[in-house]
């Protein structure tokens, strides 16, 4: 796989929290080798304010983040993905578009912090937990010696990261 730039897509149903946070974290931790995107099967249309708050807390840019459909990335001229990760259980069960180039895929399920009810502090804690899990997985992923792993070994490692 050499010194190429790898495109990574994070998928979720609403594309308002987990996949958005993963996109922002990957674009910081993975640069210059990785370029991340996110999308949803049924996008909420807005980014959850608690997700924005967590990203700002980590001093990550949020200006260009938006909730969007995965259909955008199935169109002609869309980026070709090397890796596609589902971060919610619903998206993992859905029929995804066929991604050109046969990207490697894995399920990195994270509990949905947007479903947490109660005080704002309880919600913030759920978002902190989600971004901490995503960050740990992304750190493991970007540290993999991609050029030294064969396809089967890489696929196994991607699945293992999803349980970390």
Written overview of the protein:
With 164 residues, the protein is α/β, with parallel strands linked by helices. The protein has one domain: Rossmann fold. It contains five helices and four strands, in the order E-H-E-H-E-H-E-H-H. It has a four-stranded parallel beta sheet. Helix 1 crosses helix 4 and helix 2 packs across helix 4. The longest helix is centred in the C-terminal third of the chain and has 23 residues. It is globular. The chain starts with 5 loop residues before the first strand and ends with a helix. The mean pLDDT is 91.
Structural class estimated from helices and strands: alpha/beta
Distance between the termini: 24 Å
Give the biggest sheet. 4 strands, parallel
* Number of distinct helices: 5
Radius of gyration equals 15 Å
> What share of the residues does DSSP label as strand, in percent?
5-15%
Residue share in helices?
A: 25-40%
Q: CATH superfamily, please?
A: Response regulator
Per the principal axes of the C-alpha atoms, what is the gross shape?
A: globular
What's the level 1 CATH class? Alpha Beta
Give the ordered list of helices and strands: EHEHEHEHH
CATH fold group:
Rossmann fold
- The CATH architecture term is 3-Layer(aba) Sandwich
Task: Catalogue the unreliable spans.
Answer: none
Round the mean pLDDT to the nearest integer and report it. Answer: 91
